[in-house]
Amino acid sequence: MTGYGNSRETGNRRSPLEVAKSVLERGRRLHAELEVYVSYGRTLEIRTFGGELEAVVRAEPRGVGIRALAGGRMGYAFTADLSSLGLDRAIAEAGEVLKAADVDPFAGLPDLPERPYPVLAGLWSPEVGATGIESKVRMALQAEAAALAVPGVETVEASVYFDEEERVALVSSRGVEAEAEQSFCLVYTWAHAGEGADRQSGVGFTAGRTPAALDPEGAGREAAEKARALVGGHPCPTGTYAVLFAREVFAALLARIAPALSADAVQKGRSVFAGKIGERLASACFSLRDDGLAVEGPAAGPFDGEGVPRQVTSLFERGVLCSYLYDTRAARRAGSGCRSTGNAARSGYRATPTIAASNLVVEAGRGDLAALVRRVGEGIYVESVIGLHSGINPVSGEISVGVAGRMISGGELGRPVREVTLATDFQRLLGSICEVGGDARWVPLYGSVCTPSVAVESVVVSGR
User: Fold this and answer.
1) Cβ distance 193 to 156 under 8 Å?
2) Fewer C-beta within 10 Å: the chain N or C terminus?
């Protein structure tokens, strides 16, 4: 493999795959099945404020996670010490945890994949590491300046450039051997418009696999326009409205719905979607898939956190619930020949795999935002949401969040509205979708979601 880290591995610096293989060999003395996950990462965050550089934070996290399994038990240990002594200590610790663990009849490692790992071109670019800090600082400053140039914008709270590179390897005693690398970069800006109690905020962003793909000035203008559009808002009358969700807001809602599609949540009775495969739970104009192969999405990759090949899984097809998301353990528990969907995720080498969506993709409809507003005719356009974590319950499906946006009147966007609460639940929200736009966008702010603007009819809104 060429790319990040490969040409730099000189002297005693071993590649992640070399480290993983050595740990697997050293761990054979445990007389257990082993899985070794190795991650080498680099991150850079640059913050500007008031037209000046405020902070630069670099990190190079790298380490090893070891799963040992025997007799239905599992032990896990990790270390950032890649010396022989550090690796041996982590192997021994995994063995000790294994002895003390409870028996889990569904615990086990995935078998060697029956199909080769997909080849995904463009996940990594040398441009991320080769671009100098000065250029990256300039992008954050450009975004800030663009926001401040918009009339009515008083300040920019933060303008941030962020990038990351990661190279991972995974091997197991079942013959799994996989290695991959990826890079990603992002500029986002948080602008404020208005004064005093009427100060409103807006976030704009631009993301891509390389710095050259970013549009920092566009991100700054987006943040400014969003903030300015909300100035002077007041609550609307309490009632039932058609609600048009901006792409970023619908992405945030989907990110909170996704845990309820986890097979683990379903099996534990913690999902509103439990036992409903094959039922029409959403509008016929709504289709959703988990696409681990979509290179444009930040969560794309050839394999998941257990070394299972990534794939495309249809979750909703024309409103019908088609599948849950599985890792190896959940698939074994489901029985009946169920297989992992390649959705074992790791937050890093310190963590064991858990089920999570990769790239969530909503099938696009037709028309831009203006066309969608005309089709909705009368209602509310929601541009921001407050209380996502506390106001959405993935177990019961209940949703109660504060929103802000603009009224839709006569097929056009009108006066700003804020300090209102939207109340619904997952099934009513998805089942009442009436329009889907053709303006799909990747939103990396809440995981990885690609969605157009989406309109929902008959939503209860509490205002004045």
Assistant:
1) no
2) C
- Phi, then psi, of 286 in degrees rounded to 5: -115, 120
- Contact present, 206 and 342 (Cβ < 8 Å): no
d(CA 441, CA 388): 20
Give the torsion sign (CA, 66, 310, 429, 265): negative
Residue 7 confidence (pLDDT) above 60: no
How is residue 298 written in tokens? 């930040």
What is the β-pairing status of strands 454-462 and 320-321? unpaired
Task: Spell out a b/e string for 125-156, using b for 16 or more CB atoms within 10 Å of the CB, else e.
Answer: beebbebeeeebbebbbbbbbbbbebebbebb
Q: Are 299 and 448 in contact (CB under 8 A)?
A: yes
pLDDT in tens, 388-439: 888 898 889 999 999 999 999 999 999 999 999 999 999 999 999 999 999 9
Domains and CATH numbers, the chain: 16-228 (3.30.2290.10), 233-462 (no CATH)
**Could you tell me which residues come within 8 angstroms of residue 132 by beta carbon, excluding any fewer than 6 positions away?**
none
Could you tell me the pLDDT band of residue 12, with boundaries at 50, 70 and 90? low
The pTM is what?
A: 0.94
3-state secondary structure the chain: CCCCCCCCCCCCCCCHHHHHHHHHHHHHHHCCEEEEEEEEEEEEEEEEECCEEEEEEEECCEEEEEEEEECCEEEEEEECCCCHHHHHHHHHHHHHHHHHCCCCCCCCCCCCCCCCCCCCCCCCCCHHHHCCHHHHHHHHHHHHHHHHCCCCEEEEEEEEEEEEEEEEEEEECCCCEEEEEEEEEEEEEEEEECCHHHCEEEEEEEEECCHHHCCHHHHHHHHHHHHHHHCCCECCCCEEEEEEECHHHHHHHHHHHHHHHEHHHHHCCCCCCCCCCCCECCCCCCCEEEECCCCCCCCCCCECCCCCECCEEEEEECCEECCCECCHHHHHHHCCCCCCCCCEECCCCCCCCEECCCCEEECCCCCCHHHHHHHHCCEEEEEEEECHHHHECCCCCEEEEEEEEEEEECCEEEEEEEEEEEEEEHHHHHHCEEEECCCCEEECCCCCEEECCEEEEEEEEECC
Nearest-angstrom CA–CA distance, 245 and 369: 10
User: Over the stretch 147-205, which tens digit does the pLDDT of each residue have?
Assistant: 999 999 999 999 999 999 999 999 999 999 999 999 999 999 999 999 887 889 999 99
Question: What is the phi/psi pair of residue 266, to 5°?
Answer: -65, -45
